Amino acid sequence: MEQNALRNFKDFLQLYNYMSHTCFQNCVNNFYSRDLASDEENCVDLCAKKHIKVNHKVMGVFMELQPMIINKRMEEMNQAALQIEQAAAGALPQDQVVSA
């Protein structure tokens, strides 16, 4: 469980770093002051919102499709295991066995 939490945190940090880098490159125009100009601040806000919105959509699609992908892979593995068992029992010639 701790390994999953660590991986999730690492993924979050990578996404945050990418978003920060991209928005900084696209929005910050000058370095005359430590503060952002109002147009730069608006640009950063819109950029961050865009990245967050896209991330939410991608995660939603991933959560929707992941169970179907897992089920398909499990079926393929079960079929491959069945073919291997049949080949071992002599029911199929070795050249007809599909490798997993």
Automatic annotation (TrEMBL):
Gene3D superfamilies: Mitochondrial import inner membrane translocase subunit tim13 like domains
GO molecular function, one term: metal ion binding
Subcellular location as annotated: Mitochondrion inner membrane
Topology within the bilayer: Peripheral membrane protein
GO CC term (a single one): mitochondrial inner membrane
Chief location: mitochondrion
Record keywords, A-Z: Chaperone, Disulfide bond, Membrane, Metal-binding, Mitochondrion, Mitochondrion inner membrane, Protein transport, Translocation, Transport, Zinc
InterPro entries: Mito_inner_translocase_sub (IPR050673), Tim10-like (IPR004217), Tim10-like_dom_sf (IPR035427)
Domain Tim10-like, first and last residues per copy: 4-63
GO biological process, one term: protein transport
Function of the molecule: Mitochondrial intermembrane chaperone that participates in the import and insertion of some multi-pass transmembrane proteins into the mitochondrial inner membrane. Also required for the transfer of beta-barrel precursors from the TOM complex to the sorting and assembly machinery (SAM complex) of the outer membrane. Acts as a chaperone-like protein that protects the hydrophobic precursors from aggregation and guide them through the mitochondrial intermembrane space.
Family designation: Belongs to the small Tim family.
UniProt domain comment: The twin CX3C motif contains 4 conserved Cys residues that form 2 disulfide bonds in the mitochondrial intermembrane space.
Subunit structure: Heterohexamer.
Name of the protein in question: Mitochondrial import inner membrane translocase subunit
Gene (UniProt): LOC117649985
